[in-house]
């Protein structure tokens, strides 16, 4: 197998990392828990943009970059493609399929924070499932709203916000219990795809709640693109 630099942070990336040997590198930005039980090497921290990543690829004699970051991590995906081009190594990407609205869904698509807040203007108790981004806007909470923000860690407190420090996957039963206890009137989500956080959409559908959905960013073209972990691992095995 070629020496791989795996860009991760997602559950799918961790599944790939568990199949990599000691010569490969799993790179994390540093947010959340850093795994200490992987057979491959683990690198934590940024590269210093695409130029820094290109230098790392060359210095470490990387043969293949795999982008298995979050679908909304557009900057690191762009850096991976640029760095691969400079270092003249291929870049593959795991890009899981987006969720699709189903019968009974009320999705309101938005493109940025300004559109998102406008879409929430008539609601009182939103549940944010965007990660840490809403924490930067706690001082902008409208007087009529109380926010619940679910993210990996929660150092901040606020009189009109509850911050839930938790990590998926989330079960259907757990989401039903949370929604029942908190009486949300709207859900705010990224279209992340995958099963780990999909239960909230099913419960929103059951409860007749609207979902303000942040559109996926456009990501750069790569040498090979995969929709699931199994196909990517098989391609790695074949290319060994």
TrEMBL record:
User: Superkingdom of this entry's organism?
Assistant: Bacteria
Give the EC number(s) listed in the UniProt record.
1.3.1.106
Kindly indicate whether the keyword Amino-acid biosynthesis belongs to this entry: no
Q: Which InterPro entries match?
A: Precorrin-6x_reduct (IPR003723)
Annotated metabolic or biological route of this protein = Cofactor biosynthesis; adenosylcobalamin biosynthesis
Which keywords fit this entry according to its UniProt record? Answer: Cobalamin biosynthesis, Oxidoreductase
One GO molecular-function annotation for this sequence? oxidoreductase activity
Query: A Pfam family name for this chain?
Result: CbiJ
Q: Does the keyword rRNA processing apply?
A: no
Give the PANTHER family listed for this entry.
COBALT-PRECORRIN-6A REDUCTASE
Protein name (record):
Cobalt-precorrin-6A reductase
């Amino acid at each position: 197998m070629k020496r791989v630099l795996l860009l991760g942070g997602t559950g799918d990336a961790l599944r790939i990392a568990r199949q990599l040997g000691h010569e490969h590198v799993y790179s994390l930005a540093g947010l959340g828990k850093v795994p200490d039980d992987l057979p491959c090497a683990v690198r934590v921290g940024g590269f210093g943009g695409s130029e820094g990543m290109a230098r790392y690829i060359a210095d470490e004699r990387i043969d293949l970059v795999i982008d298995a970051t979050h679908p909304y991590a557009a900057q690191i995906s762009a850096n991976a493609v640029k760095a691969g081009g400079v270092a003249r190594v291929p870049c593959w990407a795991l890009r899981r399929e987006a969720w699709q609205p189903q019968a009974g869904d009320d999705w309101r698509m938005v493109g940025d924070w300004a559109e998102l807040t406008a879409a929430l203007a008539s609601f009182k108790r939103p549940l944010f499932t965007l990660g840490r981004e809403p924490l930067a806007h706690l001082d902008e909470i409208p007087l009529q709203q109380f926010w619940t923000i679910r993210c990996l860690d929660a150092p901040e407190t606020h009189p009109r916000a509850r911050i839930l420090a938790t990590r998926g996957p989330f079960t259907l039963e757990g989401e039903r219990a949370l929604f029942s206890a908190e009486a949300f009137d709207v859900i705010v989500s990224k279209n992340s795809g995958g099963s780990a956080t999909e239960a909230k959409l099913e419960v929103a559908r059951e409860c007749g709640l609207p979902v303000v959905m942040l559109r996926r960013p456009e990501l750069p073209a790569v040498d090979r693109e995969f929709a699931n972990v199994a196909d990517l691992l098989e391609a790695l095995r074949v290319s060994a």
